């Protein structure tokens, strides 16, 4: 997912370019705005964390781009491409290093396991919307 900060700062095209050049195949793509309710469902795993309320409010603050990406070793390779959660700790050249502003407004989301990638893909896309 490209988060609201990166979309509103005009980085959508550059981030998609980095993703494609990183060897990922885009299987599905969607430009939408989450509500507080849907953002809360997406990040339900973090509901007990102190930053949850702010995170839900941030994630519903503007449009996002959701994508399903395909690659060998995709979860690990995507996390390498995006860099550390806190952009000040993200390696030079990673997406968060280049386009993120803070640990909350950190430009992109990546699934943390194949299992969660399936769940998150189904959250945004029906079978009909993938190819
Ligand atoms: P993501 O799941 O979005 O790819 P991540 O796996 O690197 O990010 P998580 O620990 O899953 O990090 O946290 C989910 C999101 O919650 C982060 O991307 C960030 O937007 C926000 N977040 C995490 N830690 C903090 C924090 N300490 N303060 C504010 N927001 C935070
Ligand atoms: Mg995570």
Question: What does this entry look like structurally?
Answer:
The chain is an alpha+beta fold and 131 residues long. It has one domain: Nucleoside diphosphate kinase-like domain (Alpha-Beta Plaits). The protein is built from 7 helices and 2 strands. The chain has helices spanning 4-8, 12-21, 36-42, 52-59, 74-82, 95-99, 114-124, and strands spanning 25-32, 64-70. It has a two-stranded antiparallel sheet. The longest helix is centred in the C-terminal third of the chain and has 11 residues, at 114-124. It is globular, with a radius of gyration of 14 Å. It binds adenosine-5'-triphosphate and magnesium ion (MG). The site of adenosine-5'-triphosphate has 10 residues, from loops.
Please supply descriptive tags for the structure shown above:
131 residues, alpha+beta, Alpha-Beta Plaits, two-stranded antiparallel ribbon, 2 strands, binds adenosine-5'-triphosphate, binds magnesium ion
For CATH, the homologous superfamily is named as Nucleoside diphosphate kinase-like domain
Helical run tally: 7
Would you tell me the structural class of the helices and strands?
Answer: alpha+beta
Strand order of the largest sheet: 1-2
Q: What composes the largest sheet?
A: 2 strands, antiparallel
Bound molecules: adenosine-5'-triphosphate, magnesium ion
H-E order: HHEHHEHHH
CATH topology (level 3) name: Alpha-Beta Plaits
CATH architecture name: 2-Layer Sandwich
Low-confidence stretches: none
């Amino acid at each position: 997912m490209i988060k609201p900060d990166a979309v509103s700062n005009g980085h959508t095209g550059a981030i998609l370019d980095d993703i494609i050049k990183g060897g990922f195949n885009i299987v599905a793509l969607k430009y939408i705005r989450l509500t507080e309710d849907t953002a809360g469902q997406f990040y339900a795993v973090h509901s007990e964390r102190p930053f949850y309320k702010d995170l839900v409010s941030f994630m519903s603050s503007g449009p996002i781009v959701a994508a399903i990406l395909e690659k060998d070793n995709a979860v690990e390779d995507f996390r390498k491409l995006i860099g550390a959660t806190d952009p000040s700790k993200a390696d030079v050249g990673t997406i968060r290093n280049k386009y993120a502003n803070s640990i909350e407004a950190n430009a992109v989301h990546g699934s943390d396991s194949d299992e969660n990638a399936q769940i998150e893909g189904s959250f945004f896309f029906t079978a009909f919307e993938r190819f």
